[in-house]
Write a structure and sequence with these properties.
With 271 residues, this protein is mainly α. The chain has one domain: Orthogonal Bundle (MetI-like fold). It has eleven helices and no strands. Helix 7 runs antiparallel to helix 8 and helix 9 packs parallel to helix 10. The longest helix is centred in the first third of the chain and has 37 residues. The two termini are 15 Å apart.
Length: 271
């Protein structure tokens, strides 16, 4: 852990992520503006002392909506990464440990899912299920577990040949105990790196789906839907797209920096 904070990238990424999380969680109590309150006479007003990020096309405060959108994006990222990593660890662990027919069947399923572009498959799933936050999470989790499963499978194939695993088997330890206590823990460090980088991907994917109108539905704000709504005002009110786009870029960059630093701390060969 100490080597993680020696990385300048990891420190910058950690500060960015912690700041955005703190701002998103405390914004309802710290900000004086209601993200749903409309002020139509002052719609499209630019940044000012009374509204730091300006007002949108309905006169709603953009800063309040950006921070509320951060809560949505972080929630989606945490759930998608959590579900994907748990499913991926279970499937990859079984596939790598047992091998044979089980490994071949699971491998073919993963190959089929990876044959489709992930975003196109997510768009198709959400279009069929209907646009909503729950369906966005479901669609991203359905395509997201494959990467974690392949990672865990590779780690398990290596770890199952370790001497202490062989010794545990010789002492009569059952397969579930060997797999859970001795094999799968070796996959946790690279899985944490993958999960950190996966947060950035999940947040970006949620924004893309919301931009297309397939994600979070109004009046709940999302960075993607805010950027889409501001496209028609690029010339007269560019702040409608600048601030949500800037927050999206900063958060994705922060998670990528944090993931790179974590990877270097876990595996010094990547330095």
């Amino acid at each position: 852990m100490r080597s993680l904070f020696r990385s300048g990238q990891a420190r910058v990424g950690g500060v960015i992520v912690a700041s955005v999380v703190l701002a998103a969680l405390t914004s309802p109590w710290l900000l004086p503006w209601d993200p749903s309150a409309q002020d139509l006479p002052h719609r499209l007003q630019g940044p000012s002392g009374s509204h730091w990020f300006g007002l949108d096309e309905l006169g709603r405060d953009i800063l309040a909506r950006v921070l509320l959108g951060a809560r949505v994006s972080l929630l989606v990222g945490v759930i998608v990464v959590g579900v994907s990593s748990i499913v991926g660890m279970a499937v990859g662990g079984v596939s790598g440990y047992y091998g044979g027919t089980i490994d071949q069947v699971i491998g073919r399923i993963m190959d089929v899912l990876m044959a489709f572009p992930g975003m196109l498959l997510a768009i198709a799933l959400v279009a069929v299920l209907g646009p909503s936050l729950v369906n966005v999470v479901l669609a991203l989790a359905v395509i997201g577990w494959v990467g974690y499963a392949r990672l865990v499978r590779g780690q398990v194939l290596r770890a199952r040949e370790f001497e202490y695993v062989t010794a545990a088997k010789a002492l009569g330890a059952g397969t579930p105990r060997v797999l859970i206590r001795h094999v799968l823990p070796t996959a946790v460090p690279p899985l944490l790196v993958q999960a950190t980088l996966g947060m950035a991907g999940a947040i970006l994917s949620e924004a893309a789906l919301s931009f297309l109108g397939l994600g979070v539905q109004p009046p709940t704000p999302s960075w993607g839907s805010m950027i889409n709504g501001g496209r028609v005002h690029l010339l007269d009110a560019p702040h409608l797209t600048i601030f949500p786009g800037l927050f999206l870029a900063i958060v994705v960059l922060g998670f990528n920096f944090l993931g790179d630093g974590l990877r270097d701390a876990v595996d010094p060969r990547h330095k």
